[in-house]
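Known limitations

Files may contain more than one protein. Parsers should not assume a single record per file. Below, a two-record file is shown to illustrate correct handling: read the sequence, read the token line, then continue until end of file.
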Amino acid sequence: MLPAAHLASRPLNVKVGADFDIVVLPEKQARQAVDRLAHCRPHPIGAAMARRGEWVLFLPPGSGLGAQWPTPARHFDSGTLQVPPLLTACEELRWARMGNTVHGGRAYTAPLVLHPLLPLLG
């Protein structure tokens, strides 16, 4: 999904929209979503990066068309996102989850599973 991150030694700026959308959640709600969906196989939460108290979840492109994401989620289908390198540690920017690409899993989060769960999170 982000091949340049594999080779980078510092954070990269990537465009949101063509290859993926994002939804930004407070870290607490993101962790709750991961925990509440732990019984699902493959896990519906894909790759996620952490930054200053929030997680950025990667969604398939076009995931926000016609959808109102419930607060505190913030959906973006354009703009620029700074992503951490895959193999180099950064202080405030890191990968929280690498997705579930093994055994037919997913790199993207499943928006149709995540969206209705968000109002249930504290």
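...continuing to the second record:
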Amino acid sequence: MIRWILCAALLLFPFPAEAAAAQPTEQSVQAERVELFDTDKQQVVRTFPNSSAFQQQAQRILDSVSGRVLDLNPSLENAMIVKIPLAPPKRLVHQASNLDTQITAMFVIMPKSGGRQPWLILHTKQEETVVVEFSAKVDAIREQLHLPKVEKGTRRP
């Protein structure tokens, strides 16, 4: 499953040439576009200008990091993944997890149905990948992405 995480992260993290091609809009941040990836379709289904609103949501989520993911194989199936390139990189400090690093991109993994809480795959300035849990609600970012709210308890055993 770790292979899936790395493959998804590599697929969602575009080559530097794409960053140069991104054209900022009035409220856009000078960064690559935000991408929404559907794991069931195995493709990017929408892109959005990387606005200050996305950057604020990213900071709010980073501020709520609660530790590293403890699951050996967190699932990437039946999920929506939003990639938010961070400009400028944002600092993540979580002493209990021994984390003090600059984050250049975050991937918010949001299961389509209830069950597991959303979690993050982070790319650091040192070109490392960190997988963490967070406690912030994702309702605001789901609204920005035009996604419906997830119904709690919809997951069947």
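Parsers that stop after the first record will miss the second one. For reference, the second record is described as follows. The radius of gyration is 15 Å.
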